[in-house]
């Protein structure tokens, strides 16, 4: 399973990237706002740091302008994946941009039917939003399962990029289902290391070691 980091915070990306935890990055307009940076400048910096795909999102609402924006974003670096919304215009832009060889991430996916359309339009990635479905008492993980089944039934090459991840359990559940990629905030990825029994065990080992009076090295 590939790990993408869902942030435009360059320092946070670097910390995880140095550990080999980063296979790609996803951004969106809200994350660019949070970074307080210029989209072109910060995206270029991320693309220089990370070898894998870096998603940068268009903001136009009609297909023609989405395609124009997508081409502009793709010029930032060769590892840009143009992110388009799951609307009819977004699918039109997806088809056009993917036909020209650009990676396309179709975002804001909330149903298996939408995911099927994105695959047929040539999406490189489909981004189903787990957390936002859970927020309205629907089952985000069930959506990942359904898309996995559909894509496997017809051997679609579009990668399932599980998004809107809010917890460590979301990540492990996505891994069990067979999502190709997860994108999560840095804090959630770092949270994967935590276990109360690890902390308790370490505390006990350290206490017992102190009693031995020994030193290593
Ligand atoms: C995905 O590409 C999105 O940027 C992201 O996962 C959305 O997450 P949120 O629902 O926590 O905003």
Name some characteristics of this structure:
alpha/beta, 8 strands, TIM Barrel, 217 residues, globular, 11 helices, 8-stranded parallel beta barrel, 53% helix
Distinct compounds present: erythose-4-phosphate
Distance between the termini: 38 Å
Q: Which fold name corresponds to the CATH topology? A: TIM Barrel
Number of domains: 1
The shape, in one word, is globular
Give the % helix: 40-55%
Average pLDDT confidence is: 98
CATH superfamily: Aldolase class I
Summing up helix and strand content along with how strands pair, one would put the structural category as alpha/beta
- Write out the strand line-up for the largest beta sheet, numbering strands in chain order: 1-2-3-4-5-6-7-8
> From N to C, what is the helix and strand string?
EHEHHEHEHEHEHHEHEHH
Strand proportion, as a percent range, falls in 15-25%
CATH architectural arrangement: Alpha-Beta Barrel
Q: Counting H and I runs of at least 4 residues, what is the number of helices?
A: 11
Number of strand elements: 8
Q: Flag low-confidence runs.
A: none
Cα radius of gyration in angstroms: 20 Å
Strand count, sense and closure of the main sheet? 8 strands, parallel, barrel
In CATH, what is the class?
Alpha Beta
Organism: Paracoccus pacificus
Main location: cytoplasm
EC number: 2.2.1.2
Function: Transaldolase is important for the balance of metabolites in the pentose-phosphate pathway.
